[in-house]
């Protein structure tokens, strides 16, 4: 009888661990979204100077969240890291579009971030910037890891005549920001929920 009870207990534990692995573990991926010709034509008529699109797939557990944030660089140094969207209402993503766009003027830039059910618009001063670049860091399907930021796009500007490149290294961190006069880097982080 003890042997049967032990066997039943072992089977029960295995079943529970299998259910937890299958149902208790969230996965999220993000990848570039390529526009069709007609989509490109529509976008070209909106007046947006540049835009990057991504597809988000996966499911968040009930208490999990996606945080969207922006790192701000001045004179090659990180000066701020601002979470601008959190408290994700939608928990399931099926090729949901995420977009990052820019409208650049002489002394200011407007950043546009489209996410499920809404759009964020942020205006920043870029006084004195003579040249700029708008870069995407995602070129293939990428799996998000909880509590690790995924860098998506960056706008960088120079007040001089030379604009150095910015890239993502093998560790997933940025290279080249130390040479940037002004920079805004956009990222997404999968978290365990809203933190104050």
SSE blueprint:
Elements: H1 2-23, E1 28-32, H2 37-44, E2 50-59, E3 65-74, E4 77-85, E5 92-104, E6 108-115, E7 118-125, E8 131-136, E9 142-143, E10 150-158, E11 167-168, E12 174-175, E13 182-191
Antiparallel strand pairs: 1-2, 1-9, 2-5, 3-4, 3-13, 5-6, 6-7, 8-10, 10-13, 11-12
Description:
The protein is α+β, with helices and mostly antiparallel strands and 196 residues long. It has one domain (28-191). The protein has two helices and 13 strands, in the order H-E-H-E-E-E-E-E-E-E-E-E-E-E-E. The chain is globular and about 50 Å long. Mean pLDDT is 85; it is low at 1-22.
Write a short abstract of this structure.
With 196 residues, this protein is of the alpha+beta class.
Mean pLDDT: 85
Largest sheet: 6 strands, antiparallel
Computed Rg: 21 Å
Total strand count, please?
Answer: 13
β-sheet strand percentage: over 45%
Using the alpha-carbon principal axes, give the shape: globular
**Whole-number count of domains:** 1
Strand arrangement, largest sheet? 7-6-5-2-1-9
**What low-confidence regions span 5 or more consecutive residues with pLDDT below 50?**
1-22
Instruction: Report how far the terminal alpha carbons are from each other.
Output: 53 Å
User: Structural class, from secondary structure content?
Assistant: alpha+beta
> Helix-strand pattern, N to C?
HEHEEEEEEEEEEEE
Number of helical elements: 2
